[in-house]
Structures are given as structure tokens and as C-alpha cells.
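Hey, sorry to bother you again with one of my protein questions. There's a protein on my desk that I can't quite get my head around. No rush at all, and the record is pasted right below.
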Amino acid sequence: MTPFQERVSRVAVQWMTGANIVTYLLSGGRAAGQVGGGSLCLLTTRGRRSGQSRTVPLLYVPDGENLVVVASRGGMSTHPGWYLNLQADPAASVRIGAQQRKVRARDATEDERCRFWPRLAAAYPYFDGYRARTSRQIPMVILSPA
């Protein structure tokens, strides 16, 4: 992806993120709660510099009580802000539909990455394309009940 394409993509992602969050909250997750073959949650982290709450919609796959999410950022060359926020403070909250719960984040192990990638790619096939277009290893995050 060229630098120009990344700038345009960042603007598009920010606009779509805001629209998804509003739609999700207003509908209790009934609208904007699905994408492709997967479900969306709203992840709220604490900004690593501002200390303010930051919310993003993310596709997830369940694994028992845990949720597995991917910091793909559409295959851009840098990690998304929410992932960097979790690196600074792994305490967060997740909303699924009208239910909200506190979670603790950690990076997936290599075994977990191998186990969950096919499920994530089946839920949202674009993940494979994102992985192919970036040189960074796309982080996979396990969100466990706090």
C-alpha cells in the first residue's frame, strides 16, 4: 500500500468506525453487529497518551469465555491505536449487543495464532488479503474476562 493509499484509507476507516459505533449503540448491536460471516463487538480502551476512553468496532470469534480479535488495520503498515492502547494498559471493556463486560487483553501465542487464524479468515476473508499486503506481523489479541 502506498503512503497516499494509507492516508486515504485512514480517513475512510475513521469515518466508517464512527458510523458503525453510533449505529451499533443506537440499535443495541442489532444493526452493525455483523460483518461478512462474523460478529462485531465494541472494544473500549484507555488512550495511552490522552487517558480518555477510545471505542472501536472489531470482528471477533469466541473461544469459550474469551474473544479473539485481530489488529489488522486493513493491512496498513502500522498497528492500530487500540492495539497500542492495550499494550500500555491491557484492561478494557467489550460490548456485545447490549451486554458490556470488563476484559483483560494479551497477545496470542504462536500456537493460538495458528489455531484461530483459519476461523478469523472464514468469518472475514479480507483478513488474508490484509496479511498479504503488509510486512508487519498482524497481532492477534485474546480478550479474557477480568
